[in-house]
Design brief:
globular; signal; AL/BT2_dom; DUF1080 domain-containing protein; 7-stranded antiparallel sheet
Length: about 220
Amino acid sequence: MMKKYLLLLALAPWCFAKAQTPELKRIFNGRDLQGWTTFAEKKGTDTSTQNLFKVENGEIHASGQKFAYIATKKSYSNFHLSVEFKWGDNRYPPRERDKRDAGICFHVQAEDKIWPKSIECQIQKGDVGDLWLIGYTTAVVDGKRTEPKDYSRVFKKGDAELPKGHWNTVEVISKNGTFKYIVNGVVVNEGERLSITSGRILLQSEGAEVYYKNVKLAELD
């Protein structure tokens, strides 16, 4: 009886911590883009987003034909986001010969444009997990504050990306000004003291066909 009691005491903190971990819930329902907005760059007089994002087989199919994005209508501050992505085959000007590119931007507070002030977790072939700071945003990485610029990059510290044809899971954790990027279960980038700490979340389409699925989020205390 005493051994059983001691075992329960030893397991109690672990069980409590597990119980307190928020469940990741779908913010993309797999049927349509309810709860999301779309925006695309203007080409001549064309501002249409038609056919740029389609929901197929429970996945978001981003054609890549324009620089564009879908964004949550809701704003978030402290959260754990998980997204799966896979590259398609097609690429378009002006990036038809460049690396396939996309991204997850968060803490988007500014008006819609390409690209709004935000923090980005890079999704680019070979560079998944790089940090991009857009619109003079900054962060502290390795104890040093980044310089405010239109676009500032901090390279990932590890490579866990799977090759084209495979689904990759990217997680973004943002809490009280800290951030952590996890690619296929491996922490590849992290920092603190973000200069912006709340806003919408967007998924980019940047000249390359890409698929997204299992877009889930847990709000953190």
